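input
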Amino acid sequence: MNSNNSLLETLHEPSIDTDKLSYEIFSILESKFLFGYDDHNVRKPKHLSPQLSVTPTASAGAQSMKNQRGKICILSIDGGGMKTIFAGKTLAYLEKALKQKSGNPNARIADYFDVAAGTGIGGVFTAMLFGNNNQNRPIFKADDTWRLLTEQGSRLYGVKKPKSKFKRLFGGGSCNHARTGFETAMKELFTVNGKSLTLKNTLKPVLIPCYDLASSAPFLFSRADALETDSFNFNLWEVCSATSASPGLFDPVLMKSTDGKSSCVGVDGGLAMSNPTAAAITHVLHNKQEFPFVRGVEDILVLSLGTGQLLEGSCSYEKVKGWKDSQWCRPMARIYGDTLADTVDHSVAMAFGQTSSSNYVRIQANGSDLGQYSGINVDSDPSPSNVKMLTTMADEMLRQKNVESVLFGGKKISEQTNFEKLDWFAGELVLEHQRRSCRIAPTVALKQSTHERT
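output
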């Protein structure tokens, strides 16, 4: 018993590797900004203090402690409207790889990730994959995510009737307004046995952002908060409608918590955080109740899915000079979102430092050309031609070489393709899942009951 207590105390102690990593990051920052540091291949400071020197015995002990702590697995999905087909295709391939590597034909994404964050349609995908069907299993498979857009895009963003396997789920009939069609689809997606699912009805911690016009601040819907008080619990269909309320396309969503004590006027989560990876990492680092042994990024495994900055044809001066304010709304929101997503990617890569190649993986299109598309609203165009093009591009993206952000060095082309990165990542997820059954203390202690906030 005493040995177990000693081990648990050691797990809570600061990690030598974490201290060393922090020292190296700040050393590189200092060299970069004060002395013109430009050697991107160097990851270790030239002068390490003796206190930070690690003997083989100490290093082996530190590695043993890391194995006992395990890694918290995070999934992050960017917003992007119809372009989120890219993320859906990636999720479908990852789930297939998980089934093969685990030998479990019923394996699901939610079985292997501890936290999921999603913005816009990425938030819809998150709710689909982690929503509970009252049998502790996800409502949907990963393959259903991208099919939702390819087979129901016209209903989500237009007025056509469904003509697919989702017809039975969504029902027939046409919609006279895009927002009405979207909200109706969300209600039907997240209603099980006549009950509307809420944030509490998710299998793992989920984070879905929107921008609250009432408070003029970002608002992050969180399962952890919902389990503490009903004042932070919202219906999933409303959460998905709010995070997807793109300016110039959908109206803001007025929503109330399940106890009616709090409200939110939600609009596009991309305005708050188009890439929610940093929010998910911060949640894990600060949530010691559910993730008690996390010391730093060395204890976190992250898969971030984006759409990339696609080339959507040219917009000449003659074409845009007559635009009204309302016509600028959606392009400007998209430009802001794409730029913010790229900035977050670089920031996270910097935070992971020397562990980025193993602990942080970003999958997105690399400068794909939409040359055959002459418009600017590819992210909200549900036409068959646009859907076919995006689906083809998603398959092409997975065959592309992976692109990695480099500390102070922009981006570099990896030697591995996105397919190969996902295969490796699936192996890491399965390995972590298997190791947890052998650890003394639980890596994750998810909340199961409601506790009022003090």
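quick obs: The CA atoms of residues 37 and 322 lie 46 Å apart.
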